[in-house]
Design brief:
The chain has 362 residues and is of the alpha+beta class. 57% of the residues lie in helices and 14% in strands. It has three domains: 178 residues, no CATH class; 54 residues, SH3 type barrels (Roll); 81 residues, Alpha-Beta Plaits, CATH 3.30.70.100. InterPro entries: LSM_dom_sf, MS_channel_1st, MS_channel_C, MscS_beta-dom_sf, MscS_channel_2nd, MscS_channel_C_sf, MscS_channel_TM-2.
Length: 362
């Protein structure tokens, strides 16, 4: 660089212009070097990065590489332009404005890169780990919160670069968050419970659950409440915080098979073995009843006026339990009648004794 200046005439070598020309030449070299680096990065991504991503089983890295390659090369060029302009002997205001503008551009590009990487990670988590319901309900909200976090972080870094006091901003954000949290305490509790329900997944949409005396099918799991359609075709809208703090029964878990039970009493003089055989045979003849596990009948206890038997059977879908129970009851009643098995009525014997001590004497 000094060799180029050697050929200038002595009267043309004004120190100021000589210094300015030297700095401009260095800035041009910096821009050229960073431009070559961006091209080198493009070649590395196209050849090496693509091959490495193709060797993995997942396509997550392929999508991330595709989305960040363009902004990454732009970031390298803008970084070189920022360094080149920052070292030029410009006027104070012009230099500060130019370098500040390029700094903001670089921070914006970095924020875009971070957002794209985070977006792909959230999509992959929602699709492969959390499930479709979480992707539909939670992921848009999580993506918005992450976007707000990235924007606020970029804003704080930018303000810090221009020597602005960010303590007041952080304090204002903290006070505002506290005020919002106190004002929407119940809503936030339901939202946190909604996150818990969707991630922990004690039940899913379509499952039949029992909550206390209420039984119904889950229609929708929202961030604030869960909608349940009861068996009488009414809708229950239950806050998520109440569901998280209650004990419930999921009839569709771990699978949709349902188990039914039928209780019947026979007379003490009846053949118990024959009665159990008839009950099992009646259940097997019903199409809805599964052959495996096979129906089973047991003598449960000795009642006051009858021997109490119970029949246990399985159906392929828990929604078929009631219909199968009706058919089995009808078949058992007919089979008992044909084979002389009686179903006694409850009986009670009352013995009335005459009180001879207080009887009137003749």
């Amino acid at each position: 660089m000094d060799s180029l200046l050697y050929y200038l005439k002595p009267d043309e070598m004004d120190p100021f212009y000589l210094f300015w020309a030297k700095q401009a030449l260095i800035s041009v070299v910096i821009i050229a070097v960073f431009y070559l680096l961006s091209r080198l990065l493009q070649v590395l991504i196209a050849k090496i990065g693509t091959r490495l991503c193709a060797a993995t089983e997942t396509d997550l890295d392929d999508r991330i590489l595709e989305r960040v390659s363009g902004p990454a090369m732009l970031l390298v060029n803008c970084a070189g332009l920022y360094l080149a302009i920052k070292r030029l002997p410009l006027h104070d205001k012009v230099g500060i404005a130019a370098s500040g503008l390029l700094f903001v551009v670089n921070i914006t590009i970095l924020t875009v890169i971070a957002y794209r990487v985070l977006d792909e990670l959230l999509k992959a988590y929602g699709a492969r780990v959390a499930g479709a319901e979480v992707s539909r309900q939670i992921m848009p909200l999580v993506e918005k919160l992450c976007t707000i976090f990235l924007v606020v972080t970029a804003l704080i870094i930018t303000l810090k670069h221009f020597n602005y006091d960010i303590l007041s901003l952080v304090t204002a954000l903290g006070v505002g968050s506290l005020a919002i949290g106190l004002a929407a305490k119940d809503t936030l509790a339901n939202m946190v419970s909604g996150f818990t329900l969707m991630i922990d997944r004690p039940f899913r949409i379509g499952d039949r659950i029992q909550l206390g005396a209420q039984v119904g099918d889950v229609i929708d799991i929202g961030l604030r409440s869960t909608k349940i359609k009861a068996l009488d075709n009414t809708y229950l809208i239950i806050p998520n915080s109440e569901l998280c703090n209650s004990t419930l029964i999921n009839m569709a878990f771990p699978d949709v098979r349902g188990k039914g039970r039928i209780n019947v009493g026979i007379g003490y003089g009846c053949d118990v073995a024959l009665a159990k055989e008839l009950m099992v045979r009646s259940a097997i003849e019903i199409p809805e009843v599964l052959k495996e596990p096979a129906p089973e009948a047991f003598l449960v206890n000795f009642g006051d006026s009858a021997l109490n038997l119970s029949l246990f059977f399985w159906v392929a879908d828990y929604t078929h339990v009631f219909a199968a129970s009706d058919k089995i009851n009808s078949a058992i009643l007919k089979s008992f009648h044909s084979n002389g098995i009686t179903i006694p009525y409850p009986t009670r014997t009352v013995i009335h004794e005459k009180d001879t001590n207080n009887a009137p004497q003749d």
